[in-house]
Write a structure and sequence with these properties.
Distance between the termini: 28 Å
Keywords: Flavoprotein, Oxidoreductase, Signal
Pfam families: Pyr_redox_2
Organism: Aspergillus ibericus CBS 121593
Shape: elongated
Largest sheet: 7 strands, mixed
CATH superfamily of the largest domain: FAD/NAD(P)-binding domain
Order of helices and strands: HEHEHEEEEEEHEHEHHEEEEEEHEEEH
CATH class of the largest domain: Alpha Beta
Strand content: 15-25%
GO molecular function, one term: oxidoreductase activity
Protein name: FAD/NAD(P)-binding domain-containing protein
Helix content: 25-40%
């Protein structure tokens, strides 16, 4: 029989081998971003008892919005209220936690000795955290022009998503803000809600932009005529709020804002609401620091399964990724999808590690048995020889 110390050493070695195959980290998953996408990921992983932490910098694209719409079960819910309730419900999953601080950097770590890898995140206070996987729900920022009054009204009568805000201003006078090439797209999205539409192109109605628009919509002029859309190319000096829809609503939920557009020539035009066509940018520098492949300034997830990015172990959810939709239901869907795939990916790794452990255990015991049996036979043979000599 093998000595006790030998068995202890053997199984200690096996334990070390298993630990080396699965990195020992603070968390299974780090989620960066506390909006609907990050919350959905946190919920999904929490329900599978994955050790998951969500970092929330307190920056949200829809923070200025009066209320969310087209979110089944939460239609009309203010974004802050939605997030608070989500946090409360997720808190019952004991494996999850939320830290209200910004993550400044994330670094992939290759442990060549253990043949594994993990991630190290550092927050704004310099505290470090490690995890096996990372999910980015870091979102976008809208690049709003520096027009006086525009930013102040953002999300409150001036918006970019007709599904999110258009219905509450139905049958009112609509203005389209942005460049000429985007006018027809906005009309096609909104013509069932509005019949009084003016596109304020702010000096972008140029021959070059006509060519650009014609490449997308060859009959663009006839389309605008069909919907009686007018184009006003005067330069905008400011947008003044005359009436706040927060204080003027009806029983059906309609919001009655009034805005006065001031042009540089001194003239004005009034509108009730505006749809905008302004560019966006990544809110966080993390995608760039992680060298993720980008598509039109979005994190590329099109060629990868389950919201995976080009970097192993890194996922992207919500507005920051490239799957072509930016709204709360999409964010929740992408977070859920990533949560499922992250969990299964880790489970596969754990399964492979368990198989490797069994194989290692079997091979090690076989070799140890051969050595022990060989030693015992040699001792026995020596005893037989000694007895024969006697």
């Amino acid at each position: 029989m093998a000595p006790k110390s030998l068995l202890y050493t053997l199984f200690s070695t096996l334990s070390v081998a298993l630990a080396a195959s699965i990195p020992q980290t603070d968390y299974d998953v780090i989620v960066v971003g506390g909006g609907p996408a990050g919350l959905s990921t946190l919920s999904s992983l929490g329900r599978m008892r994955r050790r998951t932490v969500m970092f929330d910098s307190g920056e949200y694209r829809n923070a200025p919005t009066r209320e969310m719409h087209d979110v089944i079960g939460n239609d009309g819910t203010p974004p802050a209220q939605f997030r608070a309730l989500a946090r409360q419900q997720i808190s019952k999953y004991n494996s999850t936690s939320v830290l209200d601080i910004k993550i400044d950097s994330i670094t992939p770590i290759e442990d060549t000795a253990a043949n594994t890898s993990y991630f190290r995140a550092i927050d704004a206070n310099g505290t470090q955290y490690t995890s096996r996987k990372v999910v980015l729900g870091t979102g976008l920022v809208d690049l709003i022009p520096d027009v006086p009054g525009l930013r102040e009204a953002w999300g409150k009568g001036i918006w970019w998503c007709p599904w999110c805000d258009g219905y509450e201003h139905r049958d009112e006078s609509l203005g389209i803000l942005g460049g000429l090439p985007d006018v027809v797209g906005s009309v096609l999205e909104t013509h069932t809600l509005y019949s009084d539409i003016i596109a304020f192109t702010n000096g972008t109605y140029t021959p070059a932009n006509e060519v650009t628009l014609a490449a997308k919509y060859p009959n663009w002029q006839k389309q605008l005529e069909a919907w009686d859309v007018r184009i006003d190319n005067r330069s905008i000096a400011s947008i003044e709020r005359v009436q706040n829809g927060d204080d003027h609503r009806d029983e059906t939920g309609r919001q009655f804002d009034i805005f006065r557009v001031h042009f540089t020539d001194g003239s004005t035009v009034e509108r009730n609401t505006f749809i905008t066509n302004y560019p966006t940018a990544q809110r966080s520098t993390l995608p760039d620091e992680l060298s993720l492949v980008m598509v039109d300034d979005k994190i590329d997830t099109t060629d990868y399964t389950g919201m995976r990015t080009s970097a192993p172990g890194v996922y992207a959810v919500g507005d920051c990724n490239s799957d072509g939709s930016t709204n709360v239901p999409h964010a929740m869907f992408s977070g859920k999808r990533a949560g499922v795939y992250v969990h299964v990916e880790m489970s596969r790794e754990e399964s492979n590690a368990a198989i490797s452990k069994r194989d290692f255990n079997r091979r090690t015991l076989e070799k140890q048995t051969e050595r022990m049996v060989g030693n015992e036979m040699e001792k026995l043979w020596k005893r037989v020889l000694d007895m024969h000599r006697e």
